[in-house]
Amino acid sequence: ADKKIAGKHPLLSLKPDLPLRISYFQGIVLAAVVDDGKIAEMEKEYLRRLGVKLALTSEDVEECIQTISEIRSVTDQELFLRELAEVMTEKAVSILFLGDFIRISMMPDHNKEKLHELAKAFAEYLDITNAANFFLELFNGKDVDQKSCPAGLLPYLDYFCGKKTEKNSQNEAVVEELKTLIDSENT
What we know:
The protein is mostly helical. Helices cover 67% and strands 0% of the residues. Helix 2 crosses helix 4 (58-69), helix 2 (18-33) runs parallel beside helix 6 and helix 6 (91-105) runs antiparallel to helix 7 (112-125).
């Protein structure tokens, strides 16, 4: 399964160097821990898979998690985000980061208000507020379409929304059929 997703993050299309990929990943780890100081099992798996998509080694992933877990004060968290914003000089990188940040903040057991406030402040600082609003609507289950999508996000929309093509729908139907078959054999 990891081979299918390895190196498949849209950030890699921008040819980022390793320090940028690590900073990006650390920012997402911060979103996982900022509200309660913990990383739930679901978040650990999400982060592991994100690391694979970003072509990071498992050692890089563990180091990033350890580094960010040591940041405790709000001042240090804000300083980290300011430094991260300085590294994200391309608007496309900022938009991708914001999408992943908001996506992980939508996982269960998060203080969504605190994380949304942080994401909106970050977006405002980077002048991508329209992308933050779009992601918040998207990940809250509201109907969004290409017309309401900020232009800078359009090339990456499929990554965040998932492609809903006829072929994909057929594959989903086959997967559901297989799950039903497996479940019926297990009972």
